[in-house]
Amino acid sequence: MTTAARGIAPDMPLCRTSIAFDRRVRSRPPRILLVEDEPAISESLTRFLNARGYVVDRAEDVDTALAVLEWCTIDAVILDILLAPPGCRAECGLDVLTTIRQRPGLARLPVVIFTGVPLDDAMRAVIARHGAALFCKPEDYATIARHLEGAIRRMPTSGA
Fold first, then answer.
1. What is the pLDDT of residues 66-81, one digit of tens each?
2. Using an 8 Å Cβ cutoff, are 139 and 119 in contact?
3. Residue 25 lies inside a defined structural domain of this protein
4. Based on the structure, what is the number of domains in the chain?
5. Residue 89 covered by a domain
6. Average pLDDT score over residue span 149-153
7. Would you say residue 159 lies in a domain?
8. Residue 94 domain-assigned (yes or no)
9. Is there a contact between 110 and 77 (Cβ–Cβ < 8 Å)?
10. The domain that contains 141 carries what CATH number?
11. pLDDT digits (tens, 9 = 90+) for 14-68
12. What domain range is 139 assigned to?
């Protein structure tokens, strides 16, 4: 199936891998879904994660993120809250988080909220209720990567 058929923008690279990945630890590189609408952040964070051995699928909006989650085996999600399409509420990213937690196969998927949006108490409550980690821009990428590594390591592997 092509990326366009999955609802994923064809110009967005899907399966980038790095030689830094240690195959003695896992049978495949960890796969991250990065949901970020700011191209500069998306590109720089993708490059950073690729260098650490991750495969990064990218989505700029809610629909693409949900399509990737439907069609790909994802090990963790990095999720912005405010996604740019006109009419998007600040909660758009939180809608993705809620959907993830409602799907049985994804309910325990590690999710990192990475946002520059000031959060009100209700938004913080949704993040806490769904067990997502919260990092505010401009958090150091290495801090996020360390969190991902720990969260993925604690996840049970399927078929192992």
1. 899 989 999 999 999 8
2. no
3. no
4. 1
5. yes
6. 87
7. no
8. yes
9. yes
10. 3.40.50.2300
11. 433 333 334 444 578 999 999 998 999 999 999 999 999 999 999 998 888 989 9
12. 31-154
133 three-class SS: strand
Q: Which residues contact 63 (CB under 8 A, 6 or more apart)?
A: 7
Q: How do residues 101-131 score in pLDDT, each as one tens digit?
A: 999 889 889 999 998 888 899 999 999 999 9
Using DSSP, how many helices (H) and how many strands (E) does the chain show? 5, 5
pTM (2 decimals)? 0.78
- Distance, CA of 19 to CA of 58 (rounded, Å): 20
Nearest alpha carbon to residue 76 among 97, 102, 91, 61:
97
Burial of 47 (0-12, 13-18, 19+ CB in 10 A): middle
Distance of CA 82 to CAs 30, 48, 151, 159, Å? 25, 22, 24, 36
Q: Which helix (H) or strand (E) holds 139?
A: none
Q: Which of 103, 104, 125, 105 is nearest to 113 (CA)?
A: 125
DSSP state of 78: E
Q: Specify the 3-state DSSP secondary structure of 58.
A: strand
